[in-house]
Design goal:
The chain is an alpha+beta fold and about 200 residues long. About 20% of the residues lie in helices and about 25% in strands.
């Protein structure tokens, strides 16, 4: 490994290819997960944006990746978050091998922790021209629902039409939100078109 100016070890960049990741939310059962294929020449920030799309989130909050003991996240001009910019590091330059896993956290308040596993390296001649979601199960939690505990309460209320808070909760999440549903075709249309996300 080489040593960059900031003192962190790096590896020689991997050859161009695509990485197949399994992204799973931690602390929720039955599991909520997505299988995502994305070029390894994109930055960690682009991976973050793709996870936002496949999860149906809107990038309202900060994020951080923890990979081999190093944290990468939203650029912090004040230096209070003590991590490197996820917009500066390509996937190919990170210490990732098939079977390796790392942590991704979105929204430091709700603290949505994900386990991201690199399942497979796909040769460039077989790689899709844009990020693709190839599988997944169940809907990601609604933005700002209060973390794992809030999500469980939300699902319980939505499943009980007679619950005193059911109507208010349904109005908040919208008529189409179903915790058990995952629309693969819709997600891939969003990935293809680069659905607009709020940029921090």
């Amino acid at each position: 490994a080489e040593i960059e100016a900031h003192g962190l070890p790096t590896q020689s960049p991997a050859a161009p290819a695509a990485y197949q990741f399994r992204v799973s939310l931690v602390g929720i059962t039955p599991p909520i997960w997505r299988r995502l294929v994305i070029a390894n020449q994109v930055t960690l920030h682009k991976l973050h944006m793709a996870i936002q799309i496949v999860g149906g989130w809107w990038n309202y909050h900060l994020h951080v990746f923890e990979i081999a003991g190093t944290e990468y996240g939203h650029p912090d001009p004040d230096g209070e978050l003590h991590h490197l910019s996820s917009a500066r590091y390509k996937l190919a330059a990170l210490p990732l091998m098939p079977g390796a896993s790392f942590r991704y956290v979105y929204d430091f308040g709700d603290h949505w922790e994900h386990k991201v596993v690199l399942e497979e390296v796909i040769p460039p001649d077989q790689a899709p021209p844009h990020p693709v979601c190839v599988a997944g199960e169940r809907a990601f939690p609604h933005e700002d629902c209060g973390g794992v505990y809030g999500y469980r309460e939300m699902v319980k209320i939505l499943r009980r039409p007679r619950h005193p808070e059911h109507q208010q909760m349904r109005e908040w999440v919208g008529p189409n939100y179903d915790p058990e549903e995952f629309d693969l075709d819709f997600v891939n249309r969003q990935l293809r078109t680069g659905r607009h996300l709020v940029h921090m």
